[in-house]
Structures are given as C-alpha cells and as structure tokens.
Amino acid sequence: MQRTKITELLNTTELNRKVCAKGWVRTRRGNKHVAFIALNDGSTIHNIQIVVDIAKFGEEFLKPITTGAAICVNGLLVESQGQGQTTEIQAEEIEIYGTADPATYPLQKKGHSLEFLREIAYLRPRTNTFGAILRIRHHLAYAIHTYFDKQGFFYFHTPLITASDAEGAGSMFQVTTLDMANPPKTEEGKIDYSQDFFGRSTNLTVSGQLEGELGAMALGGIYTFGPTFRAENSNTPRHLAEFWMIEPEVAFFDINDNMNLAEDFLKFVISYALEKCKDDIEFLNNMYDNELTERLNFVLNNQFVRLTYTEGVDILEKSGKKFEFPVYWGADLQSEHERYLVEEHFKCPVILTDYPKEIKSFYMKQNEDGKTVRGMDVLFPKIGEIIGGSEREADYQKLLNRVNELQMSLDSLWWYMDTRKFGTAPHAGFGLGFERLVLFITGMTNIRDVIPFPRTPKNAEF
Ligand code: 4AD
Ligand code: MG
User: Where do the domains of the chain lie?
Assistant: First the structure.
C-alpha cells in the first residue's frame, strides 16, 4: 500500500479509509487491552496516534515497538476520540522495520538538554526540537530563493576553493594535496606551492563576494547561497567555522538601495516563515522562548532605525552603561554594544553605516571624510550583527590605494581590480549569515543548534 505522510493524514477530511503510515515511534503507552503508539515521520511536529488492539497482535509482538523503533502501519484512518488530535489510525497490520533497544537508545527518555543533544548530533534531528528547527531551516532557504527569483536576481555559484582572501581577515582553512610531513621546498626553504594541486596556495572561501561582484557586473543582480569557512578560534554562541551565507550583489545600487533591499528581504523571509512554519514556530515559542512570535511580528511591523557608526558610538558612550569591552570611536563594536543599541536604546532593529575604514574590509567605498567607509551592518535583537555589507569602491585608483595601504597582494586580486578598469559602475551588496537568521527565527540561543552538523573548534566528529 502507498504510504501517506503523517502531515497529510492529520489534515485530511477524508476519513474511514485504509491508509499506510510509516515512521518512528515517539512513545507507546496503554493498558492490557489497547496500546497507543505516537508515530512521527518528520513531515510535521505532530504525531499521529496508532490505536492497537492488543488481542489482535499479541503482547509479544508489540514488545519491540519502543521509542525510536521504525514501523509501518496499515489501518483505518478515523476521527480521533482523544483530545489534541484530529485523526488516528486503527491498526490492522504492523511491520517492524527496525527496533531501538531501550537500554542503549540515547533518546529513550524525553527532555534532554540541548548540550547533551549536541553530543549526539547524529540522532538529534529525531527530536521534536530539531525536527522543528530543521523544517524551519528548509523553508527559510526556500524563501530566500523565492525572494531573489521574484526580484529578478540570478543565483550565481561562486567557488568554494579560492586563492584570495575576500575579507582580508586571514583566518582561512588551507586546501592542499601536498604531503604535509614532507612538503616540496623552494630554494629559499619555503613550501613550494607551485607543486600543489592548483599550482598555487589555495584555501576554502570566507565569502563569495569578490566573485559575486563579477557576476553582478554582468547580470545586474545576483545572489550567492553557499557554505563559507572561517578558521577563527571564536567559541561563541554566534560563530561557526562552517556556515552558510547569502550574498546579493547589485549593479547600480548605492548604500541606500542596499539598506532598502536588506530590510525588505529580511521582512519577506520572516513573514514567509510565520506563514509556512506556524506549527514549528508555535512549538518553539511554547518550549523555549515565549516572546518568539511577538519578536518576529515586531520586526516585521517596524521600520529599522538607520544611523551612522559615529552616532551609534555617541549613544553608547553617553549610555552610562558598563560594557565588558570599552567603547570609543574607532573600536570594533562587540555584540554587547550592538545589542544595547537594539534591545535597550532603540528597541528596534538598527542599521549602522559609515564605519571607520580601519575596522572594515578593503573593498568598501571610501567616504569624502577620508576616515569612514560606506559599510552597513544590520543589527537584530538577541543576535547582534545579522547582515554585513557595503557599497563597493568602484574607483580603480582609490581601491588600489587602499590595497597598497593594507599591503595586500595583487597577485591574487588582479582580476578583481580589473572590474574597476573595464566598465566599472557603482554597486553594492551584503552578506546574511544563514544560521544567524535561523537563530533569530527559531529563538534558539546557540548557533550550534540551528545547523545539522556544526563545525566549531575541536568539533567535527559527525
Ligand atoms: O560581515 P561579514 O564578514 O561580511 C562578508 O563576508 C561580506 N563579504 C558580505 C558581503 O558584503 N557580501 O559576514 C556576513 C555575515 C555576518 O553579518 C554574519 O551574519 C555572518 O555572515 N557571519 C557568521 N555566521 C556564523 N559564523 C561566523 N563565523 C560568521 N561570520 C560572519
Ligand atoms: Mg561583519
């Protein structure tokens, strides 16, 4: 018999027909005469109840149907007598695909801590919490593609292996096939990368932006959506060594267009999630964060406040608040500063612009004052920076001066510089950290809990 997904079985009005459900047992309870199996197949946060007449199957047969076991049930779909569910299945045939020994199955009991679940990340998608998070993650990815497609942007695939360092941060994972125990050396005694796989030193990309700009200068508007890698030793609840980033890049956009796009885009994906992920968001709201739905609606219904970095620092300095990291003009803002502005001062998402050039990347458009650049960070409640972007420096000479000031190598950047020689134009873009978005929308507080298999320092087992 053809299997029907549980989400459909729970939402249908066609009752009193034979159906087939397959899934994993969440719980089994009951009495001598009847057993109730709560079955989940991942298609929804809700379980379907399987009603089992024990006399019909025998107690011995039912014994191995414990939490975690995979089963197939054929039976009659009927209106549920019990509360809290619409339909249930009266079992006629049950096949056990696989058992899960209660003595060793790690998810035998309910209510494990998120910390413990991180240690069994290979199983945690089977919990209600991670089922909800992972379904939301999927819908958000789909929302992002939908948004850009509707806006006429093209999905542009940038390489994961690169020879350049887009952010100039210098914290990259090297990619090599050289024998690390015995690498070939040049006459000066350095590692001879000309003998490496790509004939040069390469690394995993920290951002698709530089290549994305090439796409924007041909297709007008593009976006990337792929994994990025940063080898910083940041053990925080907001950093991953491998995370997914969405980077739109648009020709003929200035920083104001860029801010408008960022705000419209974020509001679209939030409203999409509220509509498509109702049950899962409701579950997380009830279980973890009872202000979640309210917070999402608040962001949706309020204009983001826009101000300059200089104005922001001024507010922070006058706040009288004791911060762990000192705040002064020129300081890179920490998440405590960002969250003060958002959560305590404005009580609203904030877009900060015009940062000191020293704390931002080389490619940002330089302002007339010679001190600041046209960068923008979008700051969110509970998260801090969710988006970082800028208008780009389109002037060849100005960009070259900055590259030289920073003593960056033109060796791996000459092709990027060429875009400013051949049909250069104003353009802008930004990067949204996908996991930070999923954090915001799920109300989770640790970024390790919104990606199936987090990569963080000393953690890559599964
Ligand atoms: O601010 P970042 O470093 O900007 C860029 O990479 C630019 N190339 C983007 C652009 O203009 N096209 O990173 C962008 C966003 C951050 O705002 C943050 O949300 C996220 O990526 N992010 C991280 N997320 C998780 N773990 C990390 N280690 C992250 N580093 C940045
Ligand atoms: Mg940033």
Answer: 6-98, 125-171+206-449
